Amino acid sequence: MTTTTAPGATAGPPTADVRVVGTEPLPSPATLFEEAPGDPVADSVRRSRDAVRAVLDGVDDRLLVVVGPCSIHDPDAGLEYAGRLAAEARRLEPDLLVVMRTYFEKPRTTVGWKGLVNDPHLDGSHDIGTGLRTARRFLLDVNALGLACATEFLEPITPQYLADLVTWGAIGARTAESQIHRQLVSGLSMPVGIKNGTDGGLQVAVDGCRAAAAAQTFLGIDAEGRAALVRTTGNTDTHLVLRGGASGPNHSREHVQAASDGMAAAGLNPRVLVDASHANSGKDHRRQPGVAADVAEQVAAGGPVAGVMLESFLVEGRQPLDVAVGPSALVRGQSVTDACLGWEQTVEVLDALAAAVGRARRTDGRGWSA
Ligand SMILES: O=C[C@H](O)[C@H](O)COP(=O)(O)O
Ligand SMILES: C=C(OP(=O)(O)O)C(=O)O
C-alpha cells in the first residue's frame, strides 16, 4: 500500500486525507482489455443487446427474464450455474429471453460484503485489482456459453472495466436517486433498468430514466485510468424495475398498470420489469414463485410487463459470510447475500413464465407482433 501525502501539506497537522490510510494504484481498463479482450464475444453481446431492446420495445413478444445469483462469490459455482441456465435458455428461447444475473457489486443497507469486485477473496483483503480481473474473466466465460449477462453498476468507474461484456444493466434501489448513477447510465451502451426506491417510491426511477436520457458531462476515468471529463449522448434504452419497498410489494396488476401509466405520462417506456425478489418477496425466496405466478397471469392477460427478475442459485436459501473466517466453510452454490431459489424451483418458475407467454399468444393477449 502506498501512503499518500496530502496535496499542499505544510508544517503542522494535514488538512486533507486525515482519515485516508493509503491508496494503491489499480490496473487501467486498457490493461485489463489487453489481458482479456472482449472480441471473441463482442458479436453475441451486440446481438443480445438488440434482442433485449426488441423485447423492451415490444417488437419481440417474448418475456425478458433476468435470473441468477444475488451475487457471484464463487466463480466456479457461478459457471456451473451458467452452464445449466444456458441449456434452459436455449430450450425456452421461443418464449423467453434469458439473461443471467452476474452481479459483482453489492450495495449494502449499512455494511457487509460488497461483492466480488470489492473483495474477491471474501476475507476483507479487498484485492480490487483481482476482483476486476475475475469479474471480467467470468463475464467472458458466461458470454462464451451463449448466455447474455446482466449486472448492477455501483462504483461509477467499474463500467470502464466490464461494461463491454454486459447486455443489461441495473441501477439499484439505493442509487436510483443518485445524480452520479444517472450520469453514468447516460453513457452506458446497453439497456438499463432503474429500480424504484427502497421506500417503494416510483418517482426516483422515473426521474432517473429522464436524467439518463439527457446528454451529460461529468468526471470519470478514460481507458488509461486517468481522471477525465466524460461527455455522453444520453441513453433512452431505460425502463422501470418494480422491486417493492418499505410500503410493501408492488407486483400486483394495479401497481404494474399505475407504474406503466406513470412512465407513459413522462414519455418513457411503459413496459416494466418486475423483480420477484427483494421487497416484492420480503427477501423470502420461497415467495418468489408466487410473485412470478402473479406476474405470469398479467403477462398472459397482455399486461405491460416486459420482463421478470428472479434471484436463483444452485442451492436454495442463503448462508452467512464471515469475512474474518473466509470462504472455506461455505456451502457450494448457495448465496452469501440475499436468499435465492434453488435450481429445480428456478426451472419450474421459468416453465411457468414461458407457458404464460404461450397463453398470451393464443388469446392474442400480448397484442405484439412477433
Ligand atoms: O440484493 C442484495 C441486497 O438486498 C442489498 O444489497 C442490500 O443488502 P443488505 O440490506 O443485506 O445490506
Ligand atoms: C441490490 C439489488 O436490488 P435492490 O436494489 O432492489 O435492493 C439487487 O438486485 O441485487
From TrEMBL:
Coiled coil location: none
Keyword Amino-acid biosynthesis in record: yes
Biased composition (Low complexity): 1-16
Family the entry assigns: Belongs to the class-I DAHP synthase family.
Catalytic EC class: transferase
GO CC annotations, alphabetized: cytoplasm
Region (Disordered): 1-31
Gene source species: Desertihabitans brevis
Keywords of the record: Amino-acid biosynthesis, Aromatic amino acid biosynthesis, Transferase
Catalytic activity: D-erythrose 4-phosphate + phosphoenolpyruvate + H2O = 7-phospho-2-dehydro-3-deoxy-D-arabino-heptonate + phosphate
Protein name as it appears in the record: Phospho-2-dehydro-3-deoxyheptonate aldolase
Domain of life: Bacteria
Keyword Transferase recorded: yes
UniProt-listed GO biological process terms: amino acid biosynthetic process; aromatic amino acid family biosynthetic process; chorismate biosynthetic process
Example of a GO MF term: 3-deoxy-7-phosphoheptulonate synthase activity
Boundaries of every DAHP synthetase I/KDSA domain copy: 54-349
Pathway(s) annotated for this protein in UniProt: Metabolic intermediate biosynthesis; chorismate biosynthesis; chorismate from D-erythrose 4-phosphate and phosphoenolpyruvate: step 1/7
Pfam family, one: DAHP_synth_1
Task performed by this protein: Stereospecific condensation of phosphoenolpyruvate (PEP) and D-erythrose-4-phosphate (E4P) giving rise to 3-deoxy-D-arabino-heptulosonate-7-phosphate (DAHP).
EC number: 2.5.1.54
